[in-house]
Amino acid sequence: MNRWLGALLLVAWFAGPRGAHAQAAKALDVYTIDVEGGKSVLFVSPSGESMLVDVGWPKSATRDASTEQILDAVKKAGLTQIDYLVLSHFDVDHIGDVPALASRIPVRHLVDHGEIALPAGVTAVPDRFITYAALRRTIDHIIVKPGDKIPLKGVNVEVVAAGGALLSKPAAPSRGAGTANALCGANPQAAEIPRDVEDNQSIGLLITFGNFRMLDLADLEAHHSHDLVCPANLIGQVDVYHVNVHGQVKGMAPELVGAVRPTVALMGNGGRKGGDPPTWPILRAVPGLQDIWQLHYSEAGTADTNPPADFIANLQGPVDGHQLIKLSVLPDGTYTVSNTRNGFSKTYRAGAAQTR
Fold first, then answer.
1. Thinking of the domain 26-339+349-353, which architecture would CATH place it in?
2. SS3 state at 337
3. CB 99 within 8 A of CB 85
4. pLDDT, tens digit, for every residue of 205-253?
5. Contact 78, 21 (CB under 8 A)
């Protein structure tokens, strides 16, 4: 393909339904950004407001900061500011370098769960949190708890987990939320893994746009997500599930994924982090799950524990930059998932779980 034609096609792909002003108010766009096994997900609402969840890694001796990959996605999405920057929790692969990002693009509101949780016996607060806490004193700062809403215009964003607490009543609109979960009896609560206390402070979000629902629980581990769906499923069914803890098996609760019954699973993994092979049978057991999309080919896995190449943004070995996965949701209930690496896309319909 002529490289100039290829570049034009990529620009058109990124613009998607937002390429023309007349269509800008119609779509919810979600970009899962490649931050090499960290987390960063950008939401652009039908109103044009934005919400960035997590900022990946800070700069270190072995890796560049994730700031450039985030700014590239922000630019391609046509944004000039970030309206809500949500830090799901304060682990290093999520908190990254917020001051560096905020020095490059305006951030209107910072959202988090409050103070950092330290392991037993640890008293020294990490530098990454100290510098972040200094910044948040200069920007509008919102601490959220379960049941709160993040006021992203045009989209319903409900907090279902935060600061170690979980939703205590069914989410709304429900799509089956509040019903008994038959999977609880066969899947007792997993053992708690106490070594990473910040994981279970994660802000978990249920995003609703029309009949479309997406669940993202960040790094909430299996032990803690259990209570969101047992004995009753407080979440209900969703269309897209952003897999817990980058696809690490410690985040996989069969009673959760089986209850929310996604049509599509998105895995924000790195080549050598997340996408664990034992995660796959848990996902494959979900009735009606059509596809799993991954940011990276998981080098710990095989062809059987990775999706087909079209569903992977960054393949094994050298890659053409940091490719990402884009989700675009229209008000008619259709949503399209696309791969920037090759332009491959597939369209689904919201509410498919209701007909299974």
1. 4-Layer Sandwich (3.60)
2. strand
3. no
4. 999 999 999 999 999 999 999 999 999 999 999 999 999 999 999 999 9
5. no
